[in-house]
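Query form — protein Thiamine transport system ATP-binding protein

QUESTION: What is the three-dimensional structure of this chain?
INPUT:
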Amino acid sequence: MLRFDGVEIRQGSFCLRADFEVAPGRILALLGASGAGKSTLIDAVAGFVTPRSGRITWQGQDITLRPPADRPVSILFQDNNLFPHLSVAQNVGLGLRPDLRLSSAQHDAVAGALARVGLAGFGGRMPGQLSGGQRSRVALARTLLRGRPVMLLDEPFAALGPALKSEMLDLVAALAKDAGATVLMVTHDPEDARAIASETALVADGRVHPPHPTGALLADPPEALRRYLG
Ligand SMILES: Nc1ncnc2c1ncn2[C@@H]1O[C@H](COP(=O)(O)OP(=O)(O)OP(=O)(O)O)[C@@H](O)[C@H]1O
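ANSWER: The structure tokens for Thiamine transport system ATP-binding protein are given below.
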């Protein structure tokens, strides 16, 4: 269980409150307008910002103040964070060892992760020799390889066209299911939530509203969500 217990996060004059939980293995979409605080919440889970009060726990353990590298999370950002001077395999290998001194079993794991995202045989290419969708797959392979139980996705596929985005969302859902991972996915698009998130939480008015089953929430949106959806 990923739990936000009376969490209050401040960024300058902005304040976000969160008091909810996500069951293991679930995909939760965080939906909300620009500036509502979606990335702020992700940053607090990742350890890039420290809540002013409250606790974030994973499986009952308090992770609120843990250094980012010691948290049970891996993150996928929109810009994919690939290093242009490293090969695809090296970019993925960074998920295992930042110094890239990989054992042969780890090299095999890199190849396996690339195969799992449909990029078998692409390990020797440079990121500049890939399409945007393929670069997203490389970043996803690296996230996958880290084997962390919580995946944080901050609008990772926003720059992709609709067909490719839908393909990537399906891939995320399949990989998360295989790994039993809990996923927090930031999005502006209710269709992303509908595609793969069993639950959705609206981020608005300085708080994360309680998560609801996505279908029911979008079929009969409460006032704050109605305002957002227009
Ligand atoms: N380092 C910072 N210092 C001061 N204010 C900040 C900082 N980072 C974010 N903010 C403010 O916090 C608020 C929430 O920002 P956040 O990036 O979490 O929103 P968001 O919902 O992810 O938006 P978007 O969808 O545009 O990415 C905004 O008002 C933003 O200006």
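ADDITIONAL NOTE: The chain has a mean pLDDT of 93.
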